[in-house]
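Task: sequence design from structure.
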């Protein structure tokens, strides 16, 4: 049994992470992580919107999409689509809808 005097409080959950942390967690170069962060939910903390952090919830959502074997551009398109709606993609999003979102995003670029 642990005595109360030896108890240490757990670390608080990190709600915001830096672009550097995104690069480390996704194992991508910093410049690529910066591009990805534009499709994630960002919180600016300096005047002029120069410095930002990414919410952990959006990073986790992005990682879930990558775990479902989506490419990075496809995952960015899905994240961007739901970001426009002001929410994160649901965890039970089916592959057909994800691919349709990506396909539609590619069609818009061609116009």
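Answer:
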């Amino acid at each position: 049994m642990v005595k109360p005097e030896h108890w240490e409080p757990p670390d608080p959950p990190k709600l915001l992470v830096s672009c550097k942390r995104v690069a480390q967690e996704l194992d991508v170069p910093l410049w690529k992580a910066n591009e990805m962060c534009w499709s994630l939910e960002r919180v600016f903390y300096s005047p002029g919107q120069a410095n930002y952090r990414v919410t952990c919830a959006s990073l986790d959502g992005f990682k879930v999409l990558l775990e479902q074997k989506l490419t990075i551009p496809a995952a960015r398109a899905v994240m961007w689509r739901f970001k426009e709606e002001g929410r994160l993609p649901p965890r039970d999003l089916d592959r057909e809808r994800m691919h349709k979102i990506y396909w539609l995003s590619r069609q818009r670029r061609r116009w």
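The chain is about 50% helix and 10% strand.
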